[in-house]
Amino acid sequence: MQDYKIKSITLLQGVFSADSLKKVRFVQAEHSFVCEGRPSLEAGRKTSKTLLEQGITPTMISDNMAGFLFFKGLVREVIIACQYADATGALCDTGALILAVLANEHKVPIKLLEAERKIRFLGDPKAILSFEGQRIAPQGAHGYVPLVEWVPEKYLKKQN
How far from 134 is each of 20, 105, 127, 154, CA to CA, in Å? Predict the structure, then answer.
């Protein structure tokens, strides 16, 4: 088993623009956790590929594992893909709000990087109801697939 306590410093979430990750100086660039980005898994695929090209070993996690990583003290910085930011907060890829709340609670710094632009703000509900073309939700269940969410500024403050 890997010694993640030493190596896993950065948690990345979202689909970043082509060059934004290449400009980052990670706290410790040797290893990073990457959120998968359900339902399409696009965030995990694209971010992991970019990191590997930079010589950084990514470990993909399911989106809902982030809380456990914070609890275990494995996260030292969070990098979130951001569509737009102003003094009141930031429009980020879905999943960013829970990471910002966790980072705030655990006093972990957050960086916002330019996201790949979304044309739509809602995804196809079928994407969450099916997996590899096979329906996994019972008939009559509905899907809700927001692709972006607002993160209030109070969760984006720099931590010491």
Answer: 35, 38, 10, 41
